[in-house]
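To close the section, here is one more complete example, presented without commentary so you can practise reading it yourself. The ligand is 2'-deoxy-thymidine-beta-L-rhamnose.
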Amino acid sequence: MRWDIFCQIVDNYGDAGVCWRLARSLSSIHGQTVRIFCDNLPTLNLLASGVHVDIKDKIQLLPWESSFENHRHQAQAPDVVIEAFGCQLPERYLAGLLVAPKKPIIINLEYLSAEPWIVDFHGKSSPQSHGIPKYFFFPGFQDQAGGILIDPVPPSSPPSISSIPASLEKVWSQLRPHAKRISIFCYPGAPLRKWLEDLASLDQDFDILLTHGHAELLGINTGQAIQLPEHIQLHPLPFVSQDEYDWLLSQCDFNIVRGEDSFVRAQLAGKPFIWHIYPQEDRAHEVKLAAFLDLYLEGANQDLRLSTIAAMTWAMPSQWFGAIDAWSAHGEAWRAHLLKKQGGGGLAARLLAFVG
Ligand code: TRH
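Output:
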């Protein structure tokens, strides 16, 4: 089938990250023909840059405006149109669909949530005055939801150190073999300074990998740089491609992640993590976090439960780091559980089954 994915990049990387991951899964795992129309191609290209040319060449990454014309021809007419995160299709594109030789299905791809209510809305029709069938598709962890994006499925043991991406080679050569590695990718509101200062009070060496832009959050190069003792070392990173970022998560002992794509990859890395969920004004993010923790910690003992909840709500590391070994084992078990539950291909496979 032919798929057109519409991606509007609001302010972060998540929109592009999810669209790209879905596109490569549909194309390289499921043999579909995919185009992404995006209003910010440089960002999308940056994320996609690390992927093998055989995968990238099969997916068309196109400017938003080019969608207006080229689907009118029969050969280009899509079978499925995805509105990522409810973005509005361009009117001229929609007008073209109405006169196209075949009518596609439109999918409103929603945000990932662990909240129980999504299963009641997943797959429901959204009748439109233009008459083209449109459905809500809710990614989720439950069997009856739309699944999560699991591709590329991480290997059962972490990728070897010899597979280190070129963009990370220099930093990697500076890391200390015995130090615990922590990657940080969070929103500006996180209490990062205090968190790192408290981490420094632990009797342990840490190498902190700061993803692109995070050194500035700590005043590095911009003003009052954070002062930390020798045993905790900061390593600012460049922006790396999505595959390289996945690799980074798999090689760290602990990760701080944020929007939905890095959140899922941190789980698939099988390591403990803090999910710095995108803060919403009405505090809806707190409900979403609690819903996830209900699933994630099902079956965990009281100690691990309290430590994980404390960490995820930014309690200082000295209050919960004692549980790190138990949490690491739990992270590994959760990864295996997720892969089993999403068996058969996760979101991309469920989407195909839905439209098929
Ligand atoms: O960038 P995000 O904060 O995106 C968010 C989410 O989509 C959120 O749901 C939405 O409400 C908000 O935007 C507007 O975080 P996310 O989803 O984790 O996406 C980051 C992507 O960037 C992910 O695919 C990994 C990728 N990435 C790289 O490719 N290289 C890098 O160096 C880094 C740090 C990230």
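Once you have examined the tokens, check your reading against these statements. The mean pLDDT is 94. The pocket of 2'-deoxy-thymidine-beta-L-rhamnose is lined by residues 10-15, 17, 47, 111, 185, 211-212, 239-242, 245, 258-262, 278 (CB under 6 Å).
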